[in-house]
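Task: sequence design from structure.
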């Protein structure tokens, strides 16, 4: 908030904070690091930002929410209880709850004017005919229920997260747009069947600037995985796809697309093995498409794309069974090609 205001952004009437949102404390960050250290060689690859422990507090029902900031006596009591619980598990945890209490006193003064019942706000906006754009985060394959468990995040960054996180009923969704890179990436540990190693992987990483937004860690890169994309399409019910960063592949002579996994006599095209050992053991079936060998970052029309680039997009559409409506061809906000609506 302070950073936005320092740049002249007016927050009043524009920023709303849910009174039901859970609070993440320095305590959660310390616990996150302690748990990851315990795992030694079996680390999950957490960002150590406390997200998992904060969700654990939510699940065990001893977490604190934004609405707790309205009753300061109750807030301080709950936070001290939460800290005592964590220190019983990690006695040497370097956490000073009294300092956090003092910090949150000042946070509360700044935050409370923006706190509201966002369930009522969003649904009232829908009922009055307002257009609502909801942006997800992470990826379906990091979903705690449907992803590559345990190498996942702690929430549901799939379609269900809109319902549980925002309180908007699924019948109110008009369009569900799946956003996928023209290749794949992953941060941290976990199975990655289409991962690209060596010089080619490093080349794609550098061209695509694939470094974690939160941690700055180099992302792992791989070929487009249609098995995972089809699985995500099935789970989320995508009505359209937005295929981003097509320009990153422009220098490649050939481009591979994973169309199936094979393991123990079974062929996967739109479902995922539930367990890590199987996913790590799958044989990947690829199709190889020709590259286009020219810069497309200044192209803004479908017809202006090289034939091979259009063929790549159309093959993704065919394999996914979902229309690709938008294609990202560069880092700028305007670097988007809108594909003409296909005729029935």
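Answer:
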């Amino acid at each position: 908030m302070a950073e936005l205001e320092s740049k002249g952004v007016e927050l009043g009437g524009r920023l709303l904070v849910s009174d039901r949102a859970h609070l993440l404390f320095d305590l959660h960050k310390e616990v996150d690091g302690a748990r990851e250290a315990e795992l030694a060689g079996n680390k999950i690859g957490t960002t150590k930002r406390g997200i998992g422990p904060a969700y654990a507090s939510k699940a065990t029902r001893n977490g604190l929410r934004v609405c707790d900031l309205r009753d300061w006596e109750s807030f301080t009591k709950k936070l001290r209880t939460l800290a005592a619980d964590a220190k019983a598990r990690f006695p040497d945890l370097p956490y000073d709850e009294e300092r956090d209490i003092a910090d949150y006193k000042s946070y509360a003064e700044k935050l409370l004017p923006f706190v509201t019942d966002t369930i009522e706000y969003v649904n009232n906006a829908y009922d009055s005919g307002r257009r609502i754009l909801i942006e997800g985060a992470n990826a379906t394959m990091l979903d705690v229920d449907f992803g590559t468990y345990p190498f996942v995040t702690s929430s549901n960054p799939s379609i269900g997260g809109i319902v549980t996180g925002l309180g908007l009923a699924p019948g109110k969704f008009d369009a569900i747009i799946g956003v996928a890179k023209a290749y794949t990436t992953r941060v941290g540990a976990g199975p990655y069947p289409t991962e690209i190693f060596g010089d080619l992987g490093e080349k794609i990483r550098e061209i695509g600037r694939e470094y974690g937004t939160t941690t700055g860690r180099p992302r792992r890169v791989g070929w487009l995985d249609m098995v995972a994309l089809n699985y995500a399409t099935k789970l989320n019910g995508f009505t359209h796809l937005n295929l981003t960063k097509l320009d990153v592949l422009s220098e490649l002579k050939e481009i591979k697309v994973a169309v199936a996994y094979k393991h123990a006599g079974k062929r996967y095209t739109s479902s995922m093995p539930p367990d890590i050992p199987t996913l790590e053991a799958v044989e990947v079936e690829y199709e190889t498409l020709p590259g286009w060998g020219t810069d497309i970052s200044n192209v803004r029309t479908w017809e202006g794309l090289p034939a091979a680039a259009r063929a790549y997009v159309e093959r993704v559409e065919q394999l996914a069974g979902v229309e690709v409506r938008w294609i990202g061809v560069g880092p700028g906000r305007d670097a988007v090609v809108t594909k003409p609506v296909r005729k029935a």
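The mean pLDDT is 94.
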